[in-house]
Model the fold of this input.
Amino acid sequence: MKIEISLWELMRKNKMTGIKLSSLIWISQLQISNIKNGKTKSIGLDTIAKLLTAFECEPNDLFKIIEE
Done:
């Protein structure tokens, strides 16, 4: 089982750039880029909470479970 983060999809759906998201939730653009491109192995709960708040979504909107 693999967990995929749908940040790219949420950003596109909400017409939000990495720069705008970075300034909104106070996370570096590099960290946002790494999350968006699947280059991070873990995300802190505070970061998850900030992303859910910024996009006004539920955890199921942010994460997808992929069966291998």
